[in-house]
């Protein structure tokens, strides 16, 4: 386990690994939802601009098209930005490992989930099988 060097307790280490895995999945789920929900309507708002750009594409036309539709521009760039930030975050964690601050927060979250018990939303994914074994 990749967290075993930083977290000495084996059960807490397994729970922290599961919680980190859930965080990674949550980030990718959020990214997928932004791609599915924001991008299509934003691109649809640019439909008249696409017709203009097909006739005569210039960088000025692109700039004015983006400035004329600020919400659509935000809807196009937000999925790219969140995906890029998730890729950078995950790459940093894979290459250099979790920073000590993130490890400490992860361990505190695991301890809070354990203290709250089965009433916590994430209990069944983080701690439930630890109680059975």
TrEMBL record:
Report TM segments: 28-46, 66-89
Question: Which keywords does UniProt give here?
Answer: Membrane, Transmembrane, Transmembrane helix
Query: In the UniProt record, does the keyword Membrane occur?
Result: yes
User: Which named protein is this?
Assistant: Uncharacterized protein
């Amino acid at each position: 386990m990749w967290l075993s060097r930083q977290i000495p307790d084996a059960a807490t280490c397994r729970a922290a690994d599961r919680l980190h895995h859930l965080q990674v999945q949550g980030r990718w789920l959020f990214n997928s939802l932004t791609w599915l929900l924001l991008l299509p309507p934003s691109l649809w708002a640019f439909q008249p601009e696409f017709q203009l750009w097909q006739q005569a594409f210039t960088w000025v036309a692109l700039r004015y098209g983006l400035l004329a539709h600020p919400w659509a521009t935000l809807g196009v760039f937000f999925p790219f930005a969140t995906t890029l930030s998730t890729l950078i975050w995950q790459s940093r964690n894979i290459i250099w490992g979790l920073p000590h601050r993130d490890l400490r927060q992860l361990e505190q979250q695991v301890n809070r989930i354990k203290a709250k018990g089965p009433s916590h939303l994430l209990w069944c994914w983080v701690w439930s099988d630890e109680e059975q074994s």
